[in-house]
Write a structure and sequence with these properties.
It is found in: Cell inner membrane. Keywords: Cell inner membrane, Cell membrane, Membrane, Transmembrane, Transmembrane helix, Transport. It contains four helices and no strands. With 84 residues, it is an all-alpha fold. Helix 1 crosses helix 3.
Length: 84
């Protein structure tokens, strides 16, 4: 899990770093853009959120699929209303 984050951060630094493709493109569009605009906590937060969201969705989907129908039926009998 840690090595995946390191590889991911290195890849994003290659794309968004001071000499990255996105930074060069944005610098040509926005002349005053600092070359080190994508760094620090915000950059790590963006990278890890973007990369790990698919894992969380996969875990959530499998957890919802494994809910037994009897559990749903018991909740309805106890007064739960369906989601709309």
């Amino acid at each position: 899990l840690v090595y995946g984050g390191i590889v991911l951060a290195t890849g994003y630094k290659f794309v968004y770093g001071a000499n990255g493709l996105v930074t060069k493109t944005l610098s040509s569009i926005i002349p005053g853009l600092a070359p080190n605009w994508f760094q620090g906590f915000g950059a790590v937060l963006f990278i890890m959120t973007f990369a790990c969201t698919s894992n969380h969705i996969m875990f959530l989907t499998n957890a919802v699929r494994s809910v037994d129908y009897h559990t749903i039926e018991a909740a309805k009998n106890m007064g739960a209303s369906p989601l709309k």
